[in-house]
Every structure is written in C-alpha cells, then in structure tokens.
Specification:
Layout lengths: L1 H4 L4 H5 L4 H11 L5 H4 L2 H11 L3 E5 L8 H12 L2 E5 L11 H6 L4 E5 L12 E4 L7 H11 L7 E5 L7 H8 L6 E3 L1 E2 L12 E4 L2 E4 L10 E5 L4 H9 L5 E5 L4 E4 L4 H17 L2 E6 L7 H14 L3 E5 L6 H4 L7 E5 L16 E2 L1 H8 L38 E2 L6 E2 L17 E3 L6 E3 L2 H8 L23 E2 L2 E2 L8
Parallel strand pairs: 1-2, 1-3, 3-4, 5-6, 5-10, 10-11, 13-14, 13-15, 15-16
Antiparallel strand pairs: 7-9, 8-9, 11-12, 17-18, 19-20, 21-22
Helix pairs in contact: 5-6, 8-9, 11-14, 12-14
Length: about 475
C-alpha cells in the first residue's frame, strides 16, 4: 500500500517510449479516417447553428484528444462560432465539465467520446459518442451461441460508442428472437419518470415485458469490460449477464461474482456505521442534483451524530485522501459510473451515497436492489426514504459493531433548531484581540504535532532572491561541484 502514496519515480525514468508502436496501436483501436463521419460534424454544426451559439466548448477524452485541433477547425469553418478545446477534465471524462466550459465563457458544450449520460444543469449539451467500428455479423453470431433458445427473454445493452450499430443488430436478431428487447439512449434534458412496465436507468430506456419482471430477463452487453458493465451488473444483480467485446470479437458469459462484490460493499456499509468523522468528496460539479444530495448527506450525518467535512479534491487518489488521516471514511458524490471507486489501495474506505444511507438511515433496509445513481435517493425520486423521527437515547435499541464488537449509537438525534449557527462562535485569537471562529476541525488541527507548513510571519529575516539549482531532482547541473 505504501507504493500508492509515494514513489521514487524510477519506473517513469526507466520506461521505454515507443511512439511509432503506440501510434499504430491507437490507430488500430479507433480508426478515424473520415473525421466528419466519426465525429458527426454535420449534426454537431446543426446543433450550434440552431442554438445560435457563438462560443462552444469541445470536450475530448484523452484517447481522442489527438483529433481535437482538426475537429475544432472544421467546426469553426462550418459554423463561424468560436471553439474551445477542453482537454484534462476536472473529474471523470464521462461527465460534462461545465465548470471548465464556464471558465472559457462557453454557451454550450459538445461532449465527445464515452459518456455516462448524466443530465446537466447549466449549459446545453450535445453528446457525440464517436462511431466506433462493430462487426454486427460476428456480434449476432456470438449472441446465437450464448442464447441457443429462440424464446429467450434478453435485454440488449451497449456502450454508447456502439449505439450507431444497434439498429442493424436489431434487424438481424428480432426475426429469430421475438422476446429480445433493445434499449434506447436518452440524451439531453433530464428524463421523465419511468412509465409502468418500463425501466429507465443510466440514460437508457427499455420496456419490461416478462411476466416476472426484469429478474426473468437476461442481459447482453455490447462493449468492453469496464465501469459501465460493473455498474449494470450490480444494479441488475438478479439478471444473468453476457457480453460481446468488439475489440476481440468474442462473446462470453460474465463470471463476476456479484454476491461477493455485494458482500464487499455491505462490509463498507458496516465500516460507515462505525465511522465518527466522514469526508464528503465532491466528485462532480455538473450532474444535476449534486447540490441537493450534498445537503441531504450533511443533514443525514448530523442527525446520525457524525461529523462531516466537505472536500473538493478533484479526481480522488490515495495520495490526496491520505492527507486527511482523521477522517474515518469517505463518501463520493459522483456519477453512476465513477461512484463505484475501488478503495482497496486507499488509507480509508470510500463508499457511495446509497451505502451511507444504508448505514445512517434506520428506515432504509437492504432489499437486494443496489443503487448507483445518487439521484434516486433525492426527495421525489423512486427510492427516496424519509428519515424517521428521532428516538431518545434512553429508548434506543443498542447496536453492536460487527467489525469491532463495540457498542455504538444507531439512532437519530433531534434537530437542534435553537442552536446558533457556528459563525456566531467567536473567541480572542491572540494578544492583539483579533477574533477567530471556534471550529471543531480547527481545534483538532491545533492538537496535531504537525500542522503543515508554518508561515512564521515576522520571524524570518528578509533576504534577496538568489538563483536556485537547475535541472531535475535526480541530476542537478551543479551536483558534484562545491557550493560557493
């Protein structure tokens, strides 16, 4: 685990770079000879012209960034609007980076590449997934091998980059399989609630016609293994999954042990029940409803008697979160694909908002249905559960931790309406009679042996700037020479 927090950089210095081979591999993975067809320049230009936009942000993932300059030039020529390229995103590349777009003064965003299809709040967005090649004939052949029974009830899902080929695949399979259902993508405005007999999740919509509901159906996923497939399998954990990987041309039955994965997630729920200090990680600033969820989590943690701190650290990694050793557990507020963070290398576990609700809301019980989209937890959503009334401590049922074996509080506290806001708690800071706000976090920081870099204002003599060392840390130019 120590290697996750720091590194001597030896691996980076010894790494062999083969630009020609890397470029060839990238070209083989995504042949994009016709940029206008691959990036749907006509549809994108019509979106800009019809909206009357003058400044548009083009967001590319890392694997498509090499085409950004050419696509931006073609879009400017076709629309006359000014284009900005967003390279490194603030959070996951699957989410629309509205923050970076607003910094450039953009009026709309063209999002290229894979997307989680989470609705946005501020800017108009057009998703251009990119038309990745798919051997439809081979995919249909793999489907027949996996489902020889022609009356099988199967729901076909796909990665968004292969959505353009689903119509042709549907024409080949539906005459042979009358009970096959193809999902449809929903982009743009926040979707309406699901109708009876219909499933709407992850920006996808499909009818459920099986007598026993969705659990009587199998799932066939077209796309490579990744976070999207894992999220689907945990959410629809009662359905058997198969997949077809277009890059290898092979179909297989998914062997992910869903029960074991859920047991791991439920273990994290138990860790969240034991936690006293919770860090709320802001993993998105563009998904609709994230502010409402932050407020909901703060209220939930306060009622549960836990201290919470909201942290905005960009893309979370072990080194960043290790700077907060006092936090017992983190909860990540992100889109449905990025919320399932593997925290095995982290100093403290990272849970999802749904797992935190299981831990802190006594009214929510585990039913076997796992939720990865945090919008399902908000008031008015399909899975929202109101907090129960507070129970006096003397009447609360005792609870024992399954991890430590110690007693713990499992009831909700009263809402202290008469308590003054924290901003009114002031105290003298030093002999100059300066006022400072009393904060539990500041008090705890005061007790730490190391509190970060000390400014020592007025204690350090003023000196003139001098020229420093030149070179890289492993070999400065003046190494081996005596300093004057």
């Amino acid at each position: 685990m120590a290697a996750a927090f720091s590194s001597d950089g030896e691996a980076a210095l010894r790494r062999e770079l083969r630009p020609a081979a890397a470029a060839a591999a990238a070209a083989a993975a995504a042949p994009r000879g016709d940029l206008d067809a691959f990036y749907e320049t006509g549809r994108a230009a019509a979106f800009v012209r019809d909206g009357g936009f003058h400044k548009v942000a083009l967001q590319f993932p890392d694997e498509l960034l090499a085409d950004a300059a050419a696509v931006a030039a073609r879009m400017e020529e076709a629309t006359g609007a000014e284009m900005f390229v967003l390279g490194d995103t603030t959070y996951g590349s699957c989410c629309v980076d509205e923050v970076a777009a607003e910094h450039a003064g953009a009026e709309a965003v063209l999002h290229y590449g894979p997307a989680c299809l989470s609705p946005c709040e501020k800017l108009p967005v057009l998703h251009i997934f990119g038309r990745q090649p798919l051997d439809v004939g081979r995919c249909a052949e793999a489907f027949r091998e996996l489902y020889p029974e022609r009356q099988s009830r199967v729901v076909v899902l796909c990665d968004v980059v292969y959505a353009h080929a689903m119509g042709e695949l549907e024409q080949q399979l539906c005459p042979e399989y009358p009970n096959v259902t193809f999902s449809r993508l929903e982009c743009g405005d926040p979707p309406a609630p699901a109708l009876p007999g219909e499933e709407r999740r992850f920006g996808r919509r499909f009818p459920v016609e099986a007598p026993g509901g969705l659990q009587d159906c199998a799932m066939f996923y077209v796309g490579a293994e990744g976070l999207a497939l894992t999220s689907f399998m945990l959410t629809w954990n009662r359905c058997p999954f198969s997949s077809f990987d277009p890059t290898t041309g092979r179909g297989r039955r998914e062997t992910l042990n869903v029960s074991r994965a859920l047991m791991r997630r439920l273990y994290l729920v138990e860790r969240a029940r034991d936690a006293r200090v919770v860090g709320v990680l802001v993993g998105t600033l563009g998904v609709a409803g994230y502010l409402a969820l932050l407020q909901h989590l703060r209220e939930l943690l306060r009622r549960a008697g836990k201290r919470s701190y909201t942290l905005a650290v960009g893309k979370p990694n072990p080194a960043k979160l290790a700077n907060f050793p006092e936090v017992d557990i983190f909860v990540l507020v992100a889109c449905a694909q990025n919320s399932l963070l593997d925290s095995s290398d982290f100093y403290r576990p990272v849970v999802t908002p749904y797992e935190l609700e299981l831990a802190c809301n006594p009214a929510r019980e585990w039913t076997g249905n796992y939720l990865t989209d945090f919008r399902d937890l908000l008031p008015g959503a399909c899975a929202h559960v109101e907090l129960p009334p507070a129970v006096p401590a003397a009447e609360a049922i005792p609870d024992v931790s399954l991890i430590t074996g110690e007693m713990r509080a499992a009831h909700l506290c009263d809402s202290p309406a008469s308590q003054p806001p924290p901003s009114t708690a002031l105290a003298c800071r030093d002999q100059t009679r300066a006022l400072a706000e009393i904060s539990p976090a500041a008090s705890f920081l005061e007790s730490r042996s190391w509190q970060g870099l000390e400014q020592q204002l007025g204690q350090t003599p003023v000196s003139k700037a001098v020229q420093g060392r030149r070179g890289i840390a492993i070999a400065y130019e003046d190494e081996g020479c005596e300093q004057p």
